[in-house]
Amino acid sequence: MALIQPMRQGQAVKPQTGKRLLLVDPYPRNSQYHLTASERRAVWFPKLSLPTIAAYTPESWHVRLVDEAVQDIDFDTFLNYFALGLLIFVIVTLFYLIIAIHDVPYEIAKKRDHPHQDAIHAAGWVSLFTLHALWPFLWIWAMLFRPERGWGFQHGETAPSASTQDAKLDELLRRVDALEASAKIKEGQKRIEPVAPAAMSEAGAESERAKAAAKRGAR
Question: Which residue spans within the chain are E strands per DSSP?
């Protein structure tokens, strides 16, 4: 391997197309001297360990030397920006998710022809301002009603279908019509009510008294 040659004045710099290598000379953070960055630069002297390693690398490699006693490496900048971007993404996603799901109970109630559609819609907007604390209860409320079984409180009995209910209604209407027709027929007929026995006895007694009074007048 060729050693790194010093650059001559006026020599063109070749573009680095090979691999990149970062050589770091660490500085002990728990040093007993507690030197500041300016003090470290004042007493700093170059070390030959890293330049020696860089000299044995291929010429196509881009080698960078960093001595933490003179220059600090900020490893947290990328992580800070990454964490900030991730936080913004999560906040925006949660915001749009809350907006998207807040009307789901109302759509379910509207599809099922729920009798409390307006109440569920208003409660959904109220739940939006409470970070959807009421949303699970609204979802259960909307799912509780179904058109074919109502609220589901038949205790195991199946609710009659619409066709069965229509047939029963037609049967009741036919029975009412038959009763009305029979009542009209009975009203048209002349009914002779029998005379009670007590009334007959009273009429006979009166006739006997009338006959007796007539005989007495004839005498």
Answer: 20-25, 62-67
Phi-psi region of 163 (alpha: psi -120 to 50; beta: other; left: phi over 0): alpha
Give SS3 for 75: coil
Q: Supply the pTM of this predicted model.
A: 0.39
Pairwise CA distance, residues 201 & 210, whole Å:
14
Same structural domain, 57 and 119: no
The answer to whether residue 219 is domain-embedded is no
Distance CA 219, CA 211 (A): 13
Token reading at 165: 């209910």
Tell whether 166 and 113 lie within a shared domain. yes
Q: Decide if 25 contacts 66 (C-beta within 8 A).
A: yes
Long-range CB contacts for residues 102-106, cutoff 8 Å, separation at least 24: 102/127, 102/128, 102/132, 102/135, 104/139, 105/135, 105/138, 105/139, 105/141, 105/142, 106/142
The pLDDT tens digits for 71-107 are 777 777 888 899 999 999 999 999 888 888 888 999 9
Cα separation of 114 and 145, whole Å? 6
Domain carrying residue 114: 101-150+161-181
